[in-house]
Amino acid sequence: MNTTKHFSSCVAEYDPNALPVSAAQEIVRQWALPRGRVEVERVRLFDALDRVLVKDVVSPINVPSHDNSAMDGYAFDGAALLDASGGDESLRLTVAGTALAGQPFEGRPLATQCVRIMTGALIPPGCDTVVPQELVQRAGDAVTFAASGIERGANRRLAGEDLAQGQPALREGRIVRASDLGLLASLGIGEVAVQRRLRVAFFSTGDELRSVGEPLAPGCIYDSNRYTLFAMLRRMNVEPVDLGIVRDDRASLERALRQATQDADVVISSGGVSVGDADFTRDLMNALGDVAFWKIAMRPGRPLAFGRLWSGRRPGEGESALFFGLPGNPVAVMATFYFIVREALLAMSGATPHSLPLISATSSQPINKRAGRTEFQRGIARRDDSGHWHVATTGPQGSGVLSSMSEANCFIVLKHDAGNIDAGDSVDILPFDCLI
Fold first, then answer.
1. What is the reported pTM?
2. C-alpha to C-alpha distance for 379 and 89, rounded to whole angstroms
3. Is 156 left (phi over 0), alpha (psi -120 to 50) or beta?
4. In which pathway does it act (predicted)?
């Protein structure tokens, strides 16, 4: 059986105790494959938002279905432009009638005639050009305009110009967006085939954790990680399976992991993977599955376990699920989710992952940074009058300062080999609006 650990050791810069973020992403990318057996659901358009298409959607019609006008004006045979002394003289045409959207002009105008036409109306037979209404002078039933101000074929939308019949409108693996719903509706398509939502089980570990609504005993804290994980999973439109809080003992953790592996495609825990936690955690992971790495060179988020779990008596038996053991600190949970887990969930959902878009910005302040790890600091970015971005940190960057995520509008992405940043240096930022 090929193991994640065996594959990981073949990845450049592999160090299970200080794995660069790029190497960790590559390992996860190789193991986070689309599910082998695709479960297809047909859903109506109102239920298709953020779902993953299981096959190409082919246009059954031309869009637009007929040549039509791109604006309000007058439609005519563009050959008349050639008769106006090379286009230097004014052209006078008689108005033969009107074409409205949904109410085409009946008949065929003569070469000396034109048709008053509205945006979206069918181009009348024999016409191929539209002169905008603001370029003409109308007197009674005649219009006059400069022939040099218009080219033959202008302002005409051709049938199939947007989409030709038989052409793929949306590709397999696409996450359906709001604009896609409109596109599908314009094709007369009322439902689409999508993949079953990925099932993701998640839980928090720790004897000190209490759920919202419970009284806090001395030394206890409310569990915030399940709520941020639920929100991030919900925005990705996967099916979240909340397993609650798991206590710090081997039997409880084993039950939670086995149940999660049976119920879900992916298992995410928070807490219980850092140095100093009970020894049974690592032993249990090795007993139930195959862990590729335990630590990455990332701040926040250094303690992060990744591997595969099985529900059987030994690795390789029973149901399997990918496992992400995230840190316990709230900011570290969010950072590791977006930069390590997110792409894996997209790939396993059958979607086509794309790199998150980074924007170059100027740091407004010095930023302390140690070379040899990738840092994701919380920042507040603004754009000046010339369109250039500037960014400053939110202040203290401790991985337990969850308020820094609420105050920030971006991550400041400081690369693995970078050292301290001076004010005025260029840095990369990832706006939170880019995240799912």
1. 0.83
2. 62
3. beta
4. Cofactor biosynthesis; molybdopterin biosynthesis
